[in-house]
Amino acid sequence: MMSQKELEKLAYEYQVLQAQAQLLAQNLELLNLARAEVQTVKETLENLKKVEEERPEILVPIGAGSFLKGVIVDKNNAIVSVGSGYAVEKNIDDAIAFLEERIREYDEAIRKTQEALAELEKKVGEVAKKAQELQQKQAMSFSVKK
């Protein structure tokens, strides 16, 4: 009964590919969320450059949808995360350029992840098709044996 073993192997391969695709899809979602966050920071800094007041008032989020009123004491510099828990102070233009580069890196990672996901989904489809063909062959061989 070789075809039963082949079918079991295909079913296992299908499950493995599905699990890999699910992980990639989750990774893609995280990449998109992180990119959106960096984009928001960049836009915030770009808008801050347009503010004419020397010490503009802002709302500082403190959690649970609550805020405190605050004042920006230095609107020419920003402290940006550079990864691994480190942050550096940069002037606004350098901070924006740094964030634009991060966005480009996210775009590249998102593109590669989408390609890998499409490739995996194609493999999943091929395995499913093989399994279906094998099942049809089995069904035909059973009906012939009567």
TrEMBL record:
What is stated as this protein's family in its record? Belongs to the prefoldin alpha subunit family. Belongs to the prefoldin subunit alpha family.
UniProt keyword Aminoacyl-tRNA synthetase present:
no
Q: Which cellular compartments is it found in?
A: Cytoplasm
Q: Which function does this protein serve?
A: Molecular chaperone capable of stabilizing a range of proteins. Seems to fulfill an ATP-independent, HSP70-like function in archaeal de novo protein folding.
> Which Pfam family, just one, is annotated for this protein?
Prefoldin
Which chain positions lie within coiled-coil regions?
7-55, 89-137
Q: Which UniProt keywords apply?
A: Chaperone, Coiled coil, Cytoplasm
Q: Name one GO biological process term.
A: protein folding
* Cytoplasm listed as a keyword: yes
| SUPFAM superfamilies named among the record's database cross-references | Prefoldin
Q: Which CDD domains match?
A: Prefoldin_alpha_GimC
Q: Name one GO molecular function term.
A: unfolded protein binding
Q: Which GO terms describe its cellular component?
A: cytoplasm; prefoldin complex
Domain of life per record: Archaea
Its recorded name reads Prefoldin subunit alpha
Subunit and interaction comment: Heterohexamer of two alpha and four beta subunits.
> What HAMAP family is this protein classified in?
PfdA
InterPro entries from the UniProt entry: PFD_alpha_archaea (IPR011599), Prefoldin (IPR009053), Prefoldin_subunit_alpha (IPR004127)
